[in-house]
């Protein structure tokens, strides 16, 4: 998480206090600078302390995870939040791996973060959602909402249009709308 995300998630207050708290936790954290922000993740000692088995490393996937964290904060940190959920059709033919599946006020949402994938990949994913759409209705007794987060207005319009064409209940956000 970035310092700003940690401030919101844990209530660290102002920048000065957040930096003070994070510096005291340095024995449990790795951090690195990316542009103007610092990204923090647990080191081995920190994972042992909190009982976490998931090893995080610095890599190309980090901006994707940070954007997913921003969505989690935007939706007021839902208690039920599962990353990288596999959704299969009943006949086993269609598989969707959502970036996250979460619940807000008793309603389910599927998150798709659109950062670097091609529109062709997005189109294929929307078609796969269309394939399992009725199955999802039978499972939940309503149509869940697919939340897309993208970084350009053109992509936003295209994703919104494609979801409407395939009768998928969706909400498409620009990154700056959820920050």
Summarize the structure in words.
The protein has seven helices and seven strands; from the N terminus they run H-H-E-E-H-H-E-E-E-H-E-H-E-H. It has helices at residues 3-10, 15-24, 44-50, 62-74, 119-140, 153-165, 175-178, and strands spanning 29-34, 37-42, 81-88, 95-104, 107-113, 145-150, 170-174. Helix 6 links the parallel strand 6 and strand 7 (170-174). Helix 1 packs across helix 2 and helix 5 packs across helix 6. The chain is elongated. The model has no long low-confidence stretch (mean pLDDT 96).
Provide the fold topology.
Blueprint: H1 3-10, H2 15-24, E1 29-34, E2 37-42, H3 44-50, H4 62-74, E3 81-88, E4 95-104, E5 107-113, H5 119-140, E6 145-150, H6 153-165, E7 170-174, H7 175-178
Parallel strand pairs: 5-6, 6-7
Antiparallel strand pairs: 1-2, 3-4, 4-5
Helix pairs in contact: 1-2, 5-6
Which keywords apply here?
two-stranded antiparallel ribbon; elongated
